[in-house]
């Protein structure tokens, strides 16, 4: 199983290695990380790789922001080549643009994204790493005559250089059907975030306790091009590790996740 470490960000802030040991104890083997800024949670790449080896965990993917308005190391527009080198060093297979900050969500910035993503993907490809974009719900707002921001990115960026990390929760919250996207853009969705949504409030929920039809979605994994998926829960009304255990139990009981 894979997990996006943002799920346990509070625990990581307190003790990185202990948190990774806990996840390994819950049978997780693959990670998607966040927050790279020239270091990995304050660790050098050698230090972080040593922790990964000690816990038996592998980083499959890493999240990064654009740097359009937040000019920080580790973003697409600041030290991207060094970021790629460091992620390649620890064995990552994907680097993902994770988020556009609210103040970055302008028509002018949206129009720049396909070129920025293609350029970022060219650099990652040289290191054998695939670039991808992770959605929230704002991308499904009407953008131009061609459709939504999400459609614009899909149509205007290279299908080879720019894949998509599909967040099932945010797509569901936007009222969109992932199957229609799989059919329209086959093999474009190799990464998924798997999390559930409460009925009524639409809050985050443990997998299997909400409204998302995972069975139907996972049955379409081949046309989507799924390679890796990560459990994620942005927030919880329980202890986060208890929520993870609830999700894990449901996953293990349902074969369509495997």
What's this model, at a glance?
The protein has 258 residues and is an alpha/beta fold.
Describe the structure.
This protein has 258 residues and is an alpha/beta fold. It has helices at residues 9-14, 16-25, 45-55, 80-89, 107-126, 149-156, 168-173, 178-184, 214-218, 221-224, 240-253; strands at residues 2-4, 30-33, 58-65, 94-99, 130-134, 142-144, 147-148, 162-167, 191-194, 196-197, 204-205, 228-231. Strand 6 (142-144) and strand 7 (147-148) form a beta hairpin. The longest helix has 20 residues, at 107-126. The relative contact order is 0.12.
General shape: globular
The largest sheet, given as strand count, sense and whether it forms a barrel, is: 8 strands, parallel, barrel
Order of helices and strands: EHHEHEHEHEEEHEHHEEEHHEH
Structural category is: alpha/beta
Total number of helices: 11
Strand content: 15-25%
Contiguous runs where pLDDT drops below 50 for at least 5 residues:
none
Task: Give the number of DSSP strands.
Answer: 12
**Average pLDDT for all residues:** 97
What is the C-alpha radius of gyration, as a whole number of Å? Answer: 18 Å
Describe the strand arrangement of the main beta sheet, using strand numbers.
1-2-3-4-5-8-9-12
- Distance between the amino and carboxyl termini: 9 Å
What's the arrangement of secondary structure elements?
Elements: E1 2-4, H1 9-14, H2 16-25, E2 30-33, H3 45-55, E3 58-65, H4 80-89, E4 94-99, H5 107-126, E5 130-134, E6 142-144, E7 147-148, H6 149-156, E8 162-167, H7 168-173, H8 178-184, E9 191-194, E10 196-197, E11 204-205, H9 214-218, H10 221-224, E12 228-231, H11 240-253
Parallel strand pairs: 1-2, 1-12, 2-3, 3-4, 4-5, 5-8, 8-9, 9-12
Antiparallel strand pairs: 6-7, 10-11
Helix pairs in contact: 5-6
């Amino acid at each position: 199983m894979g997990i996006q470490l943002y799920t346990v960000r509070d625990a990581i802030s307190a003790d990185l290695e202990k948190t990774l040991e806990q996840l390994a104890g819950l049978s997780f083997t693959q990670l998607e990380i966040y927050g790279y800024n020239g270091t990995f949670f304050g660790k050098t790449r050698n230090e972080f790789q040593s922790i990964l080896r000690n816990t038996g965990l592998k980083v499959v993917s890493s999240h990064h922001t654009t740097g359009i308005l937040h000019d920080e190391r580790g973003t697409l527009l600041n030290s991207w080549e060094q970021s790629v080198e460091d992620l390649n060093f620890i064995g990552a297979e994907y680097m993902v643009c994770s988020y556009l900050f609210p103040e970055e969500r302008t028509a002018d910035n949206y129009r720049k994204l396909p070129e920025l993503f293609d350029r970022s993907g060219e650099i990652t490809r040289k290191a054998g790493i695939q670039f991808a974009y992770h959605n929230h719900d704002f991308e499904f707002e009407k953008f131009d005559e061609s459709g939504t921001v999400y459609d614009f990115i899909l149509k205007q960026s290279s299908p080879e250089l720019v894949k998509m990390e599909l967040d099932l929760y945010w797509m569901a919250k936007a009222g969109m059907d992932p199957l229609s996207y799989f059919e329209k853009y086959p093999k474009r969705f190799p990464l998924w975030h798997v999390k559930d949504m409460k009925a009524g409030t639409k809050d985050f929920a443990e997998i299997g306790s909400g409204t998302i039809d995972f069975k139907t979605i996972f049955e379409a994994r081949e046309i989507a091009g799924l390679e890796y998926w990560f459990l994620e829960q942005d927030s919880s009304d329980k202890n986060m590790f208890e929520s993870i255990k609830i999700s894990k139990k449901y996953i293990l009981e349902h074969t369509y996740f495997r």
